[in-house]
Sequence to fold (359 residues):
Amino acid sequence: MKPAAKGQPGMPGTLHRFLQNFDQVPASSAWYLADIGEACGLQELYTRQNPQILNSLKQFAIIESAVSSNRIEGVEIDRERIMPLLAGGSQVRDRNEEEIQGYKKALDLIFGSPALLPVAETSFKSLHALVRGEIWDAGLYKDRDSDIIEKYPDGRERVRFHTVPAAQTPDAMGRLVVDFDQCLRERAVHPLLAIAAFNLDFLCIHPFRDGNGRVSRLFLVLMLLAAGYEVGRYISLERLIEENKERYYETLEISSIGWHEGSHDPWPLINYLLFILKTAYKEFETRATSVKAPRGEKRERILLALETLPETFSMADLAAKCPGISLETVRKAVKDLRGEGKIAVLKAGPDALWRKVGI
Fold:
């Protein structure tokens, strides 16, 4: 596969193309969006029903993300050092440990105060400074041209992609921020498509000498949080990308061909990122509903589910809002709640309807 040709100043990226001439969403992308939308609709229910379970998932996901995102770039540490280092109980010993610890600090910042990190150049540089640590150009755009080179085991090399020249990088990054903001304000495309397109454009610009992949993944998580897709808090998107690393690089290369000229096909990488998000939600549902709830928690989950239902509901409506809880348990809870005067039966029989009274 031939590398993309070197770009010309001011050539549009994916977001700019979407703003100027967006045609239609491919059927494959539309299916991903539909499935993700359905899964996202259940995330609030899970987070309200299983706070203790999800807190454990959150802590584990941060550790997985810090390790996986760096490992994708060849940055690894001894497995025995991971927990002491990321728990804050050990001092860093080398550059690799410094970068993995820095990635965790970046995630802590994103999850703790996402509002402090708008989609802006200052945010890119702040996250880059964290993941690169004390190195001389941490938080600074590249000061010389740097193409993406692929090295083979036999020593051969090839240019996989000509990135945006260093002199044009500040302008390209400024335009990327403006185009993304305009896409959201004008609702030019679905937010998930805008986020995936941003990710592709960022990687093609390649604003930093090193660390671009890690910053792009951090911003992927941040943008998804801002758009209401919270799954990155509980399931490591970086781990899923690492598990599908070959497909990641393959779709990125395919989608970058012709990027400088505005003739590229962005959908392979967009669909890849949608696949990662859908996979994360599927894993989230499995984990959030597979852990046995403590005594009394199932009743609390059923009560929380009731709050989300309309005044009149069926047993099937309630059971659908209680994934991981058996129908028998739901029926027993309904019987108890009726005895407590919190719900009343409107219609008996196989198609019974209930009404909330004291909830």
User: Anything to note?
Assistant: The radius of gyration is 24 Å. Residues 1-10 have pLDDT under 50 and may be disordered. DSSP finds 15 helices and five strands in the chain. Residues 77 and 94 are 9 Å apart (CA to CA).
